[in-house]
Amino acid sequence: MTEHLRTICVGTVTRNRPIMLQALLDSYAMMAIPANVKLEYVIIENSATATVHGIVDRFRAKVPNSVVRYETESRLGISFVRNRVLDNAISTGCDLLTFADDDETVDPNWLTELLTERDALDLDIVGGPVRLAPMNNISRWKQLLWNGLNIKVQKDERKADFVRDQGGAGELRLATNNWMGNLSFFRSTGLRFDETLGLNGGEDWRLYRESKKLVAKTGWAPRAVVFDTIATERLTLSYHFRRSRNHCAIEVKTKLVNRKKATLFRLPGSIAARLLKVIVQLFRMPVAPGLSLLTIAWSLGGIIGLIQGLTNISTPHYQTTTGK
């Protein structure tokens, strides 16, 4: 008896990053395909008009044995685009769905490793590590910040691997920058990305939290690696300040709707904890200056975001994109 042939939808959402998109698609073309699996690539551009036809056509020629679908989503917002991919994968009868970001590339064994971990534990959602792609010809200042980010990324990966080895992989928060979902879970629960977020980020963290409420079985694939190309525009303290501010603001606004008293009660403690981080990092500056500066930016941005969350002020994180 032949084994069931499963279909994996490799989902890609993109906006204003043609060069980075091409790099991601090229890495897909070099990817090992697991046994008894066929692939369907779904590329959704967040734009009113299609602008990357040529890139998609060249990619389609490189993967002649796979279906490649390319569509646009005119409503600006990453949740809208992710849901278009999810709906496409469900409606075409796919078994599994993956996401990697359009500023990343995947390791040749990425898909195999995700699938192996998913199958071994029958997971509903599984994620893996995101490492930084090396950068060349950048200023000393930007290299300092890149080094700080790289230290944090490596530390986060080691922590995730340790937690998994201790049997706690189900407690690791999973983002869609390296992600596989079992579509039978999404079909049965109706779970989708929260479109009320609009141009704000955090849709993947929110999906993860909601999936755990629905008793999703989640895990971590330590060898399913993707590589993130950091846009030079992101190698500034102001960018990381704004990102932290916007994330904290939207989280507070959401929590106020659901748990107003508890959120207001905890707010002073959250602000104090971030102030303490700032003080600690000032003393740690000589040890790891890049990471200390970034942590200060994240903490100060978080404080402003926590306060801003109490107001009607909105600063959508994805109003503009970075990278090319």
Automatic annotation (TrEMBL):
<dbReference type="InterPro" id="IPR001173">
    <property type="entry name" value="Glyco_trans_2-like"/>
</dbReference>
<protein>
    <submittedName>
        <fullName>Glycosyl transferase family A</fullName>
    </submittedName>
</protein>
<dbReference type="GO" id="GO:0016740">
    <property type="term" value="F:transferase activity"/>
</dbReference>
<dbReference type="Pfam" id="PF00535">
    <property type="entry name" value="Glycos_transf_2"/>
</dbReference>
<feature type="domain" description="Glycosyltransferase 2-like">
    <location>
        <begin position="10"/>
        <end position="153"/>
    </location>
</feature>
<keyword id="KW-0808">Transferase</keyword>
<dbReference type="InterPro" id="IPR029044">
    <property type="entry name" value="Nucleotide-diphossugar_trans"/>
</dbReference>
